[in-house]
Amino acid sequence: MQHSEGENPVLDDAYIYVCSSSELEEDDLIECKTGEETIVVGRGEGKVYAVEGICTHAYSELVDGELDGNCLTCPLHFACFDIRDGSVLEGPADKPLRVYKAIEYDGSVWVNYEGS
Ligand code: FES
């Protein structure tokens, strides 16, 4: 997500604080909840991304899965999703994950819970 210099994107009420940037290292996953939404945030190839935190195949919390590069693997039946756009890279899941905007600003990771 691009922002012009000086603009503070997290002044938008839709952004919620997730963690400090240093807490989310490469291939780390962290879960955050807002209302009824469960969101999983990960760092893949240096960038932060956020997708819905429950697998679209059956009920499984993706924060317990693994992130390898951009491939987020479900811990239950091992479907693989592209964390950048939520698409299915490998079944058995056949529905993509909802995607949220994730940004790093001022040493912290933020997610826009309204989705993209
Ligand atoms: S619950 Fe995720 S692949 Fe089945």
From TrEMBL:
One of its GO terms (molecular function) is dioxygenase activity. Keywords: 2Fe-2S, Dioxygenase, Iron, Iron-sulfur, Metal-binding, Oxidoreductase. The lineage of its organism: Bacteria, Bacillati, Bacillota, Bacilli, Bacillales. It comes from the Bacteria. PROSITE patterns: RIESKE. Residues 16-111 form the Rieske domain. The keyword Metal-binding applies. This is 3-phenylpropionate/trans-cinnamate dioxygenase ferredoxin subunit. It comes from Virgibacillus natechei.
